[in-house]
Amino acid sequence: MPLKGHNQTEEHKRKISDGLKKAYRLGLRKVRILTKAGLEKVISAARLQVGEKHGMWKGDKVGYVALHRWLRRHYGKPDRCEKIGCKYPRMGDKKRLMIKPKRYEWANVSGRYLRERANWMQMCTSCHKIYDLNR
Ligand SMILES: [Zn+2]
């Protein structure tokens, strides 16, 4: 039972995500989804757009984790920094010299949290932080 419930939730999430993507492609502003309780709900398709670019990170922790898991699975583990001008050693925050990047992450560069490679770039944690602060 717990496993079945889990799968249903995953399936449900996927359906909503597919629906939103479709709405986005069609340029719809509102989209109807079916909630877990089986009720129809109208939500804003703008959730996927730049206007609320940080909304996802703050409001949808589950979506964030799932998306990053997906990125890793499909594009692999980031192993370099694609940011132009990325140089080491460099001064990190806390005024500590960083000899080399701690790790690499998938950074969103389009403001559209879609599962398309063009929306993502590999960055070291440091470049990622700077990038997110400046956009
Ligand atoms: Zn970097």
Write up what this structure looks like:
- With 135 residues, the protein is α+β, with helices and mostly antiparallel strands.
- The protein folds into two domains: 1-48, no CATH class; 67-135, no CATH class.
- Helix content is 41%, strand content 18%.
- It is built from four helices and six strands; from the N terminus they run H-E-E-H-H-E-E-E-E-H.
- It has helices at 2-26, 55-59, 61-75, 125-134; strands spanning 30-34, 40-44, 90-91, 97-98, 104-108, 120-124.
- The protein has a two-stranded antiparallel sheet. The chain has a two-stranded antiparallel sheet with strand order 3-4.
- The protein is elongated.
- Zinc ion binds at residues 81, 83, 86, 123-124, 126-127.
- The site of zinc ion has 7 residues, from strand 6 and helix 4.
List the helices and strands and how they pair.
Elements: H1 2-26, E1 30-34, E2 40-44, H2 55-59, H3 61-75, E3 90-91, E4 97-98, E5 104-108, E6 120-124, H4 125-134
Bound molecules: zinc ion.
Q: Rg to the nearest angstrom?
A: 18 Å
The secondary-structure element order is: HEEHHEEEEH
Strand order of the largest sheet: 1-2
- State the low-pLDDT regions, or none: 48-55
Helical content (DSSP H or I, runs of 4+): 40-55%
Termini separation comes to: 45 Å
Which percent range describes the beta-strand content? 15-25%
Ligand types: zinc ion
Question: What would you say about this model in short?
Answer:
With 135 residues, the chain is an alpha+beta fold. The chain has helices at residues 2-26, 55-59, 61-75, 125-134; strands spanning 30-34, 40-44, 90-91, 97-98, 104-108, 120-124. Strand 3 (90-91) and strand 4 (97-98) form a beta hairpin.
